[in-house]
Amino acid sequence: MNASPVYQIYQWLSDMNTWWLNTHIDGGWVMWGSMGIVAVLVLSLLPLRMGVYRPSARVSRSVPLRSVSPTASRSVSPYHAFLRQFFWTIVAGAVGWAIAWLLSDVIVAFGVSLGRKITLRVALGSALIGFALVSVRIHRSWRRVLAVLLVPAAILLSALQINAVYGQYPTVRTLLGVEHFERASSFPVVNSSITDYLSSSSSVPSRGRINSVDIPATTSHFRARTAVVYLPPAVLGKKVPDMPVLLVLSGQPGNPDTFFTAGQIGALADAYAKTHHGLAPVIVSPDQLGARFHNTLCANTRPYGNAETYLTQDVIRWIESTLPVTKDHTKWGLAGFSQGGTCSVQLGPTYPQLFSHIIDVSGELSPNAGSESTMIQDYFGGDKAVYEAHIPQNAFAKYASSSFASTEIPQHTIILAAGELDPLAQRNEVAISRFAAKAGWSVSSVLAKKSGHDWQTVRAVMRYGLDIFGYETGLSSSVEAKLGGQILNKPKLSDYPDLQPLPEAAQTQNPQKEVR
C-alpha cells in the first residue's frame, strides 16, 4: 500500500531534520563552504582595478562642480587602497591576538589557557573583520555591501575553526543539545563471572551499546540532565559478567553526552574490547552540572543544589542496582576533563572507598567559579572550611591520614594529563601530581603532543587511560588466563605516539610504590 502524500512529506521532513542535526560543523562541507564564502568575499574586495573611491567622493549632482574640493573628487589608486587594507588587516589581527592572549594567559579570565591554536584563530578572525571594515571605507556601491557581509562571515568562520580545535561540538545536534543516543528500556543482569564468560563460546556483538538514561536523584534532589551509559560487548550476550566501572565527567560548559560525542569514549572502549575478547569497562557519564553553563563545583552548593550527593550517592546506588557491574570498588574509576577533571581530583581522594582510579585531564588546582571569597559566600554560605575541603591539595592530605594510605602498596592510582599547548594545565597537573604522590598514590603524568585544552587531548589520553584502567582492574589478566598464560605487560607510555611524560613531573613517580 502506497503511503499518502502527507506521510511522504512528513517522512521527507523527518529525514531532512535528521540529516541537518547530524551535519558535522567541525569539518566537511560546512567548514569548507564557510572558507569558500570568505575567500570569495575577500577576493571581491581586493582593489584590482582603477575606479576605487573614498567615501568622500560621493558628490551630489546638484552641487556645483567648483564647490567640490579637489580632495573629494580624487580617486584612490588600487595600490594605495591595497596598502590601507593590508595595514589595517595586520593591525586588527595583532589587536585580536593581544586581547586573546591577555585574557587567556595573563588575566586567565576563562580559568584555563586558550592555547596557541585558539589565539591564532582569534587573530585571523580579527584580521578579517579589520579587512572588512577598511573595505567599507574604501569601496562604494555593491562592494560596500560585500564588505558588510564579510563581517558576519568572518565571525562564523572563526567560531567554526575555534570549535574544530576544541572539538566540543562535532555536529549541529551537539551544538543544540539535542539528545544523541536512544533511550534504554532495560539493562542486562549479571549471571556470570569474567572467567566463566571467557571460557564460554557464546557470541557477542562486535561493538558495545550506548544509551541515554535518567538517573533518579532520590537522595540529593539534584536537577540532573539525562546521563549516558556505555555497555561493552561482553555484557550483551547470554553470559553477562560483572564489569569494572568508569565514571566520566565532561567540562563546563558541557553535556553528559560530550564525552561520547567529542571525546569518542565509546569508540575507544570498542577498540579496547576488540583486543580483549569483548571485555571493557561499563562507562557512565552522569550530569554534574545541571545545565550546560552551570558550574556546581561538584559540591553541595546553595545556587545549584546537591551535585556532590548526587554523584557519590544517587549515581553510585543506581549503577550498582541497575547495570552489570562489580560491587568491588577497587575496580571503579573516575575520569574528567577540565571542570570534570577538577571534580575527579576533588571527589577521588575524598571518597577513596568509591573510586580507586582517577584520570584527570586538564583539571585545575581548586574549584573555579569566581573569586575565592565569592565562592565561599555564594556557594557555601560563608563556610570557608567546607570550601577548603573541596581543594584537591586538602583532599589528598586528608586521604594521606586515612587507612587507605597505610598500606605499603598503593591502593589508588591516578593519571594526570595536559596538552602540550596548554601551559597552565601543565603547571596544575605537575602540582597535583606532587600532592597525590605525597599522599601515597601511584602517579602517572602525561603530556598530549600538539594539542591544548581540547578534546583532542582527551581522546589521546583516554586511549592510554582505558588500557591502564583495564590492566589495573584485572581485565588484562583475565584475558591473559584465556590465552593460556601469555603475559600481557602493563601498557607503556612509549607505545602511544601522541603522548610523552609530562615535564617536571617525573620526580613524583615512585617506582617502589607503583602498582603491580
TrEMBL record:
Q: Which residues cross the membrane?
A: 29-48, 86-112, 118-138, 145-166
Record Pfam families: Esterase
The answer on whether this UniProt entry bears the keyword Transmembrane reads yes
User: Which Gene3D superfamilies does this one have?
Assistant: alpha/beta hydrolase
- Recorded GO terms, molecular function? acyltransferase activity, transferring groups other than amino-acyl groups
**UniProt superkingdom:** Bacteria
Biased composition regions of type Polar residues, renumbered to the chain: 506-516
- What is the protein name given in its UniProt record? Esterase
**Where is the organism placed in the taxonomic lineage, from the top?**
Bacteria, Bacillati, Actinomycetota, Actinomycetes, Bifidobacteriales
